[in-house]
Amino acid sequence: MDAQKYLNEIKGRFPGTADAAPERIKDGVPALLCPAPFLFEIVKYLKAEGFNYLMDLCATDYRDSLEVIYHFCALETNVKLTVKVRLDREKPELASITPLYPGADWQEREAFDLLGINFPGHPDLKNLLLPCGWEGHPLRKDYSRKPDQYD
Amino acid sequence: MTENTLKDKDGFETMYLNMGPQHPSTHGVLRLGLVLDGEVIIKAEPDIGYLHRGMEKLAESRTYQANIAMSDRFDYVTSMNNNFVTALAVEKLLGVEIPKRAQYLRILMAELNRVVNHILFFGFFAMDLGATTALIFGFREREEALELFESVCGARLTYNYFRVGGVSRDLPAGFIEKAGNFVKMMRSRLKDYDDLVTGNVIFQDRSVGIGRISKEDVLAYSLSGPVMRASGIKYDIRKDDTYSVYREFDFEVPVRENGDCFDRYMMRMLELREALKIIEQVLIKLEPGEILAKVPKIIKPPAGEAYVRTESPKGELALYLVSDGTANPYRLHLRAPSFINLQILQKILTGVKVADVIAILGSIDITLGEVDR
To answer: pTM for the complete prediction?
Structure first.
């Protein structure tokens, strides 16, 4: 597995980085769980190493914490890598990678909108899918919908 | 928003033009906020979300099979491809083997849907540039393809044809012959398409050299599908990160160099021919057999997660699916190609004339249902 080489390299350089529960991952792409303060540097390193394509960026609410998941791919070699970050649910904050991958722009805004994750460093972090002034973050598990005229 | 504080290069006030919500040639409900210096755009801001239905949230309260039915509504032009990725993702979590015939049927339907999408693109793109006949041509051929779909699954738009473990029904009698005729008919019609639009001087004037996207931008903005290949990056998930049984089929991945509107149009026309090639091969290879694997009545995949990518007609359509062992997904995230491809507008509309906005938007080929989800 070629991606394993990068994993070991990152684990050596950035303390606190670990493999993310491999038995849970069914698509066979190695995943890395990294501490939030190092994320920007790790992504910068990956970009320099040829992971030139950000396939997807999304977030999940795991009730005790929020998880942001980055799926990277190096198009020339077809090596894929997943990077995960666990965030505190009360004050979720994670450096924006939009300066490195402009394609992350709307995906980060979506996570901000639907899960309430703050991305300092993002050029224009504001609502994307929900109307302005919408209260709450629908994709959080404790989100309760206000009753409307159909209820 | 900061619109009117922006000044043009001579320090004069700019004009803010609100395109939409609705117009951008009615690919759906989209609003473009344009800051103009005369006729030239100095800042463009697409505003989306008018069609947001909260599908990722809805998915969490639906069973896996019901999610396949819902996936029809992601991008309502390519329902079969949406079904495909949803079924593949659930099967990845479940770890089931799919019978051979079901695999072939899936590819047959996905490629037929690719043909339908590209025919529609042909019609709408020409329509965006002011040619109405092409749209009528496109809809005429689409009708024939929809009849094929209708004979298989009873629906014309929301097929709900895929099942976890296979497909819902086998082909009706005479389908193979009808599909073969469709391929032949389509090939001859493609000549008409080229005569009517591709070689047309006015069409070329409006599209050649317009809305160039560089290779670097393609990578930086994570563009995928025909938009990516029109800029000279030869990457097709069906070939380079293959899934299902695509490796058994012989087809080319067309690629163009300029990355302008015309090349993006040509990409679709070339891919259409490749899709027809695949359909023909499937029709020959089809053998009788099972169409549904043995899966439990109530699908409860073991806890885990998977990111499954496929090549939809619009680009990389992928699903990030998390299961917690219950009958409903814990999290379903759709990586929608239209959503990500649309971001490039902010960059390439700068410095472009207003008249070209619709040409550029049309050439990216988006469905707002998928952008807003």
So the answer is: 0.87
